[in-house]
Amino acid sequence: MDVFDELHSKWSTLDDITQNAIATAAAGTRNRNFFNTIMANWDEIKEAIDISTNSFGTAEEKYKAYTDSIEANLNKLTAAWEEFSKKILNS
After folding, report:
1. Do 84 and 48 reside in the same domain of the chain?
2. Which residue among 37, 39, 41, 56 is buried most deeply as judged by most CB within 10 Å?
3. Model-level pTM greater than 0.85?
4. Percent above pLDDT 70 for the chain
5. DSSP characters over the chain
6. What range defines the domain where residue 12 resides?
7. Is the distance from CB of 39 to CB of 10 less than 8 angstroms?
8. Alpha carbon distance 6, 25 (integer Å)
9. Cα–Cα distance between 9 and 42 in angstroms, integer?
10. Claim to verify: residue 90 and residue 49 sit in the same structural domain
């Protein structure tokens, strides 16, 4: 990411020949256009990466809350079952 950030900050100051030479060296002839597109849209791509990263963290938190909720309910069920079993045995 740091390399792309630094390159993007200088990308618009480079002429087309230099941009294509860097794109070819970095991505090869077949992916040069893809690399140029990445450089042209780097701010949006970086924002999408940040959103994706944050979304994963949020999803992970929600899943943890869900599993904690299931675990808590299973513990309550286990405790209720044990209490029920004790009462049955004592009677």
Report:
1. yes
2. 39
3. no
4. 100
5. -HHHHHHHHHHTTS-HHHHHHHHHHHH-STTHHHHHHHHHTHHHHHHHHHHHHHHHHHHHHHHHHHHHHHHHHHHHHHHHHHHHHHHHHH-
6. 1-40
7. no
8. 17
9. 10
10. yes
Domain count, the chain: 2
48 and 60 fall within a common domain: yes
For 39, other C-beta atoms within 10 Å of its C-beta total 20
Which band of pLDDT confidence, cut at 50, 70 and 90, is reported for residue 86? Answer: confident
Place of tokens 């077949």: 30
Q: Which residues contact 45 (CB under 8 A, 6 or more apart)?
A: 38
How does pLDDT run across 30-41, given as a tens digit for each residue?
999 999 999 999
For CA atoms 24, 28, 34, 39, give the dihedral sign: negative
